[in-house]
Every structure is written in C-alpha cells, then in structure tokens.
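Ticket #4471: structure output looks truncated?

Reporter: J.K.
Steps to reproduce: submitted the chain below (579 residues) through the standard prediction queue, then opened the result file.
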Amino acid sequence: SRELVTGGRDAKANSSAADLNSSVRHGNSSNGPVKDHKVLDRQLQVLQDQAGMNRQNTMSDGRRLSAEQMSALQNGGFQNEHMFTEFKTPEWFEMILAVTGIAMLQQRIKEEMDERAKDTFQNPYQELFVIVSSIRFEVGIAIAILSNCLFIGMEASWPDDDAAIVFNSLEHIFVGFFLIEWCLRMRAFGWVWFFDTPNTADTFLVFGTGVIPKWILEPSGLDLGTLRILTVLRALRLVRIVRVVRLLPQFKELWMLIQGLVQSVRPLLWTSVIALMILYIFGIAATEFIGRQEVFQDDEYVQELFGNPMRSMFTLFQMMTLDAWGNSIARPVMEKDWWLCLFFAFFIMIAVFVFWNLITAVIVQNALSIANEDTQLKAKDLEAKKKQDLKVLADMFLEIDTDGSGELSTGEFFAALDNPKVRQMLELIGVKVEEMHEVWRVLDDGDGFLTVKEFSSGLRRMKGNAKAKDIIDIIKKLRHTALHHTELQSQVQQFSASLGSLEHDVERIQQDTGEVLGLFQEMYHRLTAQIEKEKGEDRLYALQLAKKVEADGVDGADEAENSEDSDDERPWHPPTTTT
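Returned output as attached by the reporter:
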C-alpha cells in the first residue's frame, strides 16, 4: 500500500499507518476480513497517539480513514496540533452527577448536538430554521427590544398615572412577543438550544423579567416595584444580533468594543484586588502618619479624612482619581506638617503614574489581542470549513467506492447516483446530479479512474473561487470552443441558404393555396344560394297543397295523397331557372 505520510514520523509508525490504511480501504487485514470494527478503531487510536493527533475521522460505512490520509487530503503532510493537559474529574463529583442524573443529561445533550452538527442532519422544521436564523428576524427582534426599553423609560418618567393602563398593556404585548420568539427558537434549534450559555441567559431574561413577574406574580397581588428594574436587562439581548453580524466589515469595530468590554472583566477583577491592596497599605500608613499624630488630634477635618484605616482608604481612593486632592486633602494637611508632601507625592507616583498607566497598557494589550484573535478566528473558521468539506468528500468517496479499491471507476461513479445518501451529499456540497457527467469529464485525467485526491480536490476547487491553473484550463477549452464555433458558423451559413430557397418555395405554395381557397369559397357561396332557393320553393308548394286540401275536403285530401304518391313515383327533375 502507498504511504501518504510525509515527514515527522518514524518508519514504524509510517508502515503501520500505511498497512492500516490499506486494510481500511480494502476492508481486510493480513489475517482475513475485518469483522470487528472495534479492534480496527483501537489500532487507529494507537497510531494517532504515536502521530501526536487525537481526532478520528469516522466514515459512513463503519470504516475509517487514517489520520495520516486525512491530513494528506488537506495539505499533503502533517500539521502539528497543540496538546492540552486534561484534568481528571474527581470520582466523588462524577458520582454526584451520576446519582442526580446530570451525567445522563450531559450525554444526551452531547449526542444531540453532535447529531445536529452533522452535514447530513435534516432539520424537521427547515423553513422555520431559515426564518429564525435570518438577519431580518434578528433585526426585528432588536427593534422590539429597543422599543420595549424606550417604553420602560417613558413609563418611569411619565408624571401621571393615567397612562398606566396603556403602558401595562404594552408590557403584556412585549412579554407575549418575546415568549413567542423564544418558542420559535426552541422549535427551530431543538431542545439543546436551551443549554447553550447565551441562550440560557436569554431564557432567564424572557421568563425572569417578563413571564413570571407579569403573568404569575402580578396576578397574585405581589408588589413588583423592585423587579421592574430588571426589565431594563432585556437590552442585553441586543448582543445576540451583534454576534450574528460580527463578521461583516461594517460591524467590526462594534464587535471589538463589545469583546473588549467582556474580556476586560477578568483584568478589572485583578485591578480591584491590587488597588485594594495598595489602598490598604497606604491607608494604614496614612492613619499612623497623619491621623494619630498629636498635631492633628484636635483637627476634625483631618480626622474625618484620616481618622481610621477605612477613612484613609476612601480619602486615598479620591486621590487616585485626582479629584481635587491638592486643595482639599494635601494642602490642609501640609499646613501643619509640610514633610507629608513626600508621602502624598510617593502615593501619587505609585497609585496614579504607575498603577493606572499599567492598567491602561493591559487594557490596550487586551484589545490588540482581541483584534488578533478575531483574525485568527476567521482563519480557523475557514480551516474548519475546509476540514469539514474534506470529511464530507471522504465519506462520499468511500460510499461510492463499493469494491474498496481506493479508486473510482466510471461504473461506480455513475451507479452511485442512484444512491439516496450520495445524492444528499452532492446537494450539501452544491453539486447537482444532472451535472455529474460533466464533473466526471472534468475530473478524469484520461485513465478512466479517480483517486481520492483527484475526487476530493477536484470537487473542492469547483466550490471555491477560480485559481490561475483553473483559468488556464478554461482558456485552453475556449480555444477548442472557438475552432468548433468556426465550423458551426460555416454550417449555419449553408443552412441559411437552404432555408432561403425553402422560403421562396413556401411563398409560391402559399400563393397557389390562396387561389384554390378562393375557388372553393366561390363554389360554397353558389351552392348555399341554390339550396336556399330550393327550400323556398318546397315551402311554397307545401303551402299551396295545404290550401287545396282545405278547399276540397276529405276527397280532396285523398286526391292530394294520390297526387303525392304519383309525385313520389315520378322521377325528379331539377327546376329550370332563368338567369
């Protein structure tokens, strides 16, 4: 078997990986057919550990591509991955999770998320999923949230209670609207949508600030004065739409600001800890140097500022903010003990010049890191999309390769078009079944077979933008098309001349046909006039005969009958007309 492994591995690992790859492709091993796929999975896991990789690529029919072959499909070689230390969960904690049923719930959530993450997953509510996932839906929800916040502010500032009924009705409308939106998301994304952290917070905002207070607690007669403040937290749901549009260039700065605000929570926490330490140390020193000196014992103003450590810490915090510290704090103290200016100057240099500027540097560095991580995140998304495409194409290749030879023949390729699973995979990558004949002609290099590399790379190139080699190939085909066009043009000219002669013949036939139609029309009009005249004479004769019968009575009627019999026996002659 061929070795797809290049560099960075010892010969033993390479040989084992190649042998296993051959066993996977052909469905057999050195000892015969592979009947236990679990054994094959364990062998593959051992090779992945030797190669420094910890992912497995599960194939559609229970077989697996080796990690080395999948990497070769990606870029022709290995890519080192970062290995992270995994901490084992304590057994007592696992026991608690198992007893309470949380472990089983976590397993079900993971299985459901993995199932929905597959490309072959068919959402039972696809139309609803498309609507809920659209930007227009998110923008509509954002407008509703902003309107709700606006009405809450108007209600708080309204002087009269006459509009309380109006605002209460609007609040019920908004609560119902947000509840319907929550139900639509649960229906579209499934029950596991609730267990994502942002969605859990969103659920709390919908029920904790709307449904429970407005539809449960308020009808019970409870006072909601304090809980109404929480309704303003609904504005936090606007972060959802920012997450949706974060990849658009127009919202890049907005997303960076929000990310910076979120990522600054941890630095802010440590900043508070260090600031508290600085204030505590200098607060004790200020209490000893200022508050307990004899010269300041009778000074109520100084005792209010530095009488105990808590007062000293608050006063020093005011100095950290540079809030009128010179005239209101330092100078009144320095009037009685001038050398304390050194203490204040030292505190300002440590707490303001060093500490605050250091915090600014950390925040700026954090913002730069966020910008870099955002760029890297886009690159990772593209790389993950590439790997996912290769995974789907590898699954499709093994599904089509029925004989396990590692190559696709023409018969296998076109016979697979009747397989519903293959047709579904083709739809996922945007290739129509009707185009597969053209796809084969493009991918085949003339030998009548397609390898896994030709198949996967060819279909991926069809999905992406055109490259230089693709453009050159198109130019070559355009040249052949131009030659065929010249031949077709000459044939079209010959057909044009033939059509001209046919058109002349058709015009002559049309003229002759017109003359014949004119003769037939003339004959038709003459026959119609003759028939009408005969009908008139018959009616006149019948009228005269009826009058004669009435005059002659019964005998006349018999004579009339005899006359009619004689007329029937008499041969008919057309009446003579005078022109």
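Triage note (M.O.): checked the attachment and the full token line is present. DSSP finds 21 helices and six strands in the chain.
Status: closed, working as intended.
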